[in-house]
């Protein structure tokens, strides 16, 4: 009793002591401000404390943890209360460790926690933030591109938290622009997901770059990436069609994917957009290119849209082909049609064209007591590609045997074995090296179903008369189906040749070669917008050694009709007993039209100021006779083209169109121009030709013109000691005049330095020059009669230059006292001797010059 009283007193004293120590912080709680934890792991929220005078008395200790306002854990001398997934280590408490453990944290565990430590009477609280992060998963789903076609790549970034994220695409390490970020979506657990798509259009020549999808996120110390080398592939072509089963109301729907690369494809049937229940239950047969679905008229599937969705590496979204089933298609025509089932068959049929495999599954009912065999169905035939024939047997109490055989035109029937290596020579010979047989078997309730296929590449010469048999033997009972290979055909190669008749008609000849079967119908028609049938001459079919045929058809069309560029001629051909058809169409505008005009270069004259120049251009080889010719002019240094029309300056002679021996036309277009140096130098003329066969007119240009004016020596005067020469009408202005003088004899001429030239421009743009030569110096002590002078005029329009000589006339000094001299005036009466004439531009004038 006394002990307990003493204890109480002591306890009281202790609390008093503690009370006093409060002011000196007897309790100290420490937490880090932040704690980060990956999602799904266990997180620890550290909280430690210290008391001033250990050891601690657990009686006075209480720990509280809050998440926001909610108390998640309480520990005191009455014990521990906590939310699920939350705990503390009670033994560590007395060592001052109140850290909280949270197991399997989720996004919703992120937030602010409060650690409160009470060591009576002291209390201290600290807050700590828990950040949850989730690491993104990065996957590029489709890694195969299609050459020369925009292919979308998708990078799926999933399960990340928080939402801030950066997605980048790289090609060989370089950032690619133009990627598109899809909408951010949140998962049920609070994490986020996102798609980024990038569309690439690789060219034929591009190699295999490395593409990477790079993701940066706060949870990742270094970016996370999914990178791969580009592969190239071919997207599948998908076809859906239906066929009946022998003597049964059911229908087989076939979905076939072909010509794709790489493997595999995934094929799924959808009824009105949903996967039907009975299909969901069926197992995936690992098939690759074909899927068969046998529907029952009165079963679950009746009327609606049945679609086949094909997924492939090259496709971001599946290709979906839909068949609309009408009530007639599924109508029960047979009394027993009320039970039945859906058989789901799937077939493997390589895009590269190798194997075929099927599996099927029957929801069997009692009705199927009888063993049945379907017709031989065949896949679509594309010339040069494999064709697959398939045959289905169902409800055999024992596993049936399948025997394919073929019969050539010799009537001999040969079995084709499933294993190619065991194939007998003849079957191999008939079908070619690369045929395949494949059989898939399934069974339910002791009933066996078989789907078998035979693939080969059809060839006219080998297979046109072949008959294929498919025999199933079920418990000693055999059923056989047969198919004549009359579906085999060869499309013709077509050529069109056009020529002209003497009477101006276009003869159009179509040649069709190597087609099969023989029957073909050719029709010609023509018109503008609306076509009218044309008469034609069709020739016989001529056989080729490979059993194919050739034929020709010719049709005459009035040539003038082609004057309208919209006029078209069309020829179509239809192969009988096959779906083969083709057509060709042409008009004057087509590149194949053989009679477009062509132009020679423009023949240019030498252009002289004040004279006429004739430009001309030959145009040939055109048909019909519907040519338009225009002359255009472009000013020196200008851009604009002006139309040239007949005027004082221009003459455009009438054009004469000549018919040539080959039926085409030709003509010469001409333009005559009165040339002026000022206005025409540097200008350009263009001859423009339009014709129904031309989309854009043809142009020929003269190029920038260069005009010259020929210098004319107007006069030569002597005035005192000067000789003055006037040169006129030259263009361009550059001209050279040199004077020379000889003494006593007309040889050893020396240049005269004292020459003055004055240049003037005439109103018509040409130039005039006065050249004044100081013939006699002050120092000349000689008899002036002993001097000889020459003047030489050089200009680009002169070849050779003008050379003038002024000679002394012996023995008659007086006659040549000429002041002024008009040279041309004197030519008639002056006593002069012509020394020589080198050309029309070279004049030698001899006259006696008397100088006072
Ligand atoms: C506190 O206890 C936890 C276990 O609850 C332990 O993981 C942690 O290391 C301890 N902290 C210190 C500082 O001892
Ligand atoms: C962790 O939590 C998630 C979601 O709350 C749950 O699906 C998972 O089973 C838990 N894991 C463990 C180990 O308890
Ligand atoms: C990403 O694309 C796939 C395929 O189209 C789609 O199923 C998924 O929902 C998309 N995710 C987001 C977050 O948009
Ligand atoms: C089938 O498709 C057609 C055309 O798209 C539509 O008009 C029709 O309503 C669809 N039928 C069903 C049952 O969904």
TrEMBL record:
- Check the record and name the CDD domains matching this protein: IgC1
Domain named Ig-like is located at: 25-129, 136-229, 236-324, 369-470, 591-706
Listed transmembrane segments = 339-362
Signal peptide range equals 1-26
* InterPro entries membership: Ig-like_dom, Ig-like_dom_sf, Ig-like_fold, Ig/MHC_CS, Ig_C1-set, Ig_sub, Ig_V-set, Immune_Resp_Modulators
Q: Which UniProt keywords apply?
A: Immunoglobulin domain, Membrane, Signal, Transmembrane, Transmembrane helix
Q: What is this protein called?
A: Uncharacterized protein LOC100496188
Species of the source: Xenopus tropicalis
Question: Could you read off the lineage of the organism from its UniProt record?
Answer: Eukaryota, Metazoa, Chordata, Craniata, Vertebrata
């Amino acid at each position: 009793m006394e002990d307990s009283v003493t204890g109480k007193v002591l306890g009281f004293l202790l609390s008093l002591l503690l009370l006093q120590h409060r002011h000196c912080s007897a309790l100290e709680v420490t937490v880090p401000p932040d704690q980060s934890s990956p999602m799904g792991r266990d997180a620890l929220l550290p909280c430690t404390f210290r008391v001033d005078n250990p050891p601690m008395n657990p009686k006075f200790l209480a720990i509280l943890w809050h998440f926001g306002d909610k108390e998640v854990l309480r520990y005191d001398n009455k014990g521990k209360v906590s939310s699920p997934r939350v705990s503390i280590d009670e033994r560590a408490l007395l060592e001052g460790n109140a850290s909280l453990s949270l197991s399997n944290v989720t996004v919703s565990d992120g937030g602010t926690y409060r650690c409160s430590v009470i060591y009576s009477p002291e209390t201290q609280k600290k807050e700590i933030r828990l950040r949850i992060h989730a690491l993104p998963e990065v996957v590029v789903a489709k890694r195969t591109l299609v050459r020369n076609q925009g292919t979308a790549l998708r990078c799926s970034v999933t399960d990340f938290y928080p939402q801030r994220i950066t997605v980048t695409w790289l090609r060989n390490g370089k950032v690619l622009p133009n990627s598109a970020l899809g909408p951010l979506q949140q998962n049920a657990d609070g994490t986020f997901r996102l798609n980024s798509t990038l569309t690439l259009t690789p060219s034929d020549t591009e190699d295999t770059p490395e593409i990477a999808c790079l993701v940066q996120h706060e949870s990742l110390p270094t970016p996370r990436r999914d990178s791969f080398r580009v592969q190239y592939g071919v997207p599948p072509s998908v076809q859906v069609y239906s066929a009946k089963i022998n003597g049964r109301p059911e229908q087989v729907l076939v979905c076939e994917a072909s010509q794709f690369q790489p493997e595999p494809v995934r094929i799924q049937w959808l009824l009105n957009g949903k996967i039907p229940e009975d299909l969901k239950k069926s197992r995936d047969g690992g098939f690759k290119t074909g899927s068969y679905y046998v529907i029952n008229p009165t079963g679950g599937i009746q009327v609606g849209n049945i679609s086949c969705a094909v997924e492939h590496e090259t496709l971001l979204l599946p290709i979906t082909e839909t068949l609309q089933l009408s009530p007639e298609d599924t109508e029960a025509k047979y009394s027993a049609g009320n039970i039945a089932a859906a058989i789901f068959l799937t077939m493997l049929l390589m895009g590269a064209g190798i194997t075929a495999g099927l599996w099927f599954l029957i929801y069997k009912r009692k009705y199927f007591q009888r063993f049945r065999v379907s017709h031989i169905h065949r896949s679509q035939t594309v010339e040069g590609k494999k064709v697959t024939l398939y045959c289905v047997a169902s409800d055999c109490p024992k596993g049936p045997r399948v025997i394919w055989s073929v019969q050539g035109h010799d009537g001999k029937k040969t079995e084709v074995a499933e294993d190619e290596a065991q194939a007998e020579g003849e079957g191999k010979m008939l079908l070619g090296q690369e045929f395949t047989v494949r059989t898939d078997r399934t069974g339910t309730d002791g009933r066996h179903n078989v789907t078998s296929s035979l693939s080969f590449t059809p060839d006219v010469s080998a297979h046109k008369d072949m008959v294929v048999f498919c025999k199933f033997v079920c418990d000693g009972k055999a059923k056989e189906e047969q198919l004549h290979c009359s579906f085999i055909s060869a499309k013709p190669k077509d050529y069109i040749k056009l020529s002209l008749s003497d009477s101006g008609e276009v003869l159009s000849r179509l040649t069709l070669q190597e087609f099969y079967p023989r029957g073909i119908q050719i029709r010609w028609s023509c018109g503008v917008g609306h076509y009218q049938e044309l008469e034609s001459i069709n020739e016989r079919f001529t056989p080729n050694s490979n059993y194919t045929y050739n034929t020709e058809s010719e049709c005459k069309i009035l040539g003038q009709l082609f004057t309208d560029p919209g006029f078209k001629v069309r020829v179509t051909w239809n192969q009988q007993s096959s779906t083969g058809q083709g057509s060709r169409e042409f008009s004057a505008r087509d590149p194949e039209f053989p009679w477009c005009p062509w132009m020679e270069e423009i023949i240019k004259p030498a252009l002289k100021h004040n004279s006429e120049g004739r430009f001309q251009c030959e145009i040939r080889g055109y048909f019909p006779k519907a040519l338009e010719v225009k002359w255009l002019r472009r000013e020196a240094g200008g851009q604009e083209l002006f139309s040239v029309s007949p005027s004082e300056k221009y003459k455009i002679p009438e054009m004469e169109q000549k018919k040539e021996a080959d039926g085409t036309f030709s003509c010469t277009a001409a333009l005559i121009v009165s040339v002026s140096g000022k206005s025409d130098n540097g200008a350009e003329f263009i001859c423009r030709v339009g014709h129904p066969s031309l989309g854009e007119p043809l142009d020929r240009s003269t190029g920038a013109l260069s005009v010259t004016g020929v210098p004319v020596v107007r006069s030569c005067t002597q005035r005192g000691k000067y000789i003055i020469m006037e040169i006129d009408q030259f263009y361009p202005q550059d001209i050279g005049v040199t004077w020379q003088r000889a003494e006593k004899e007309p040889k050893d001429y020396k240049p005269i330095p004292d020459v003055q030239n004055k240049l003037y421009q005439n109103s018509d743009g040409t130039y005039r020059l006065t050249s004044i030569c100081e013939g006699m110096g002050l120092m000349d002590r000689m008899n002036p009669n002993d001097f000889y002078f020459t003047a030489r005029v050089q200009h680009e329009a002169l070849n050779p230059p003008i050379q003038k000589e002024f000679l002394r006339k012996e023995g008659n000094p007086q006659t040549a006292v000429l002041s002024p001299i008009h040279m041309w005036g004197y030519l008639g009466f002056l006593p002069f001797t012509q020394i020589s004439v080198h050309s029309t531009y070279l004049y030698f004038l001899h006259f006696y010059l008397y100088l006072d």
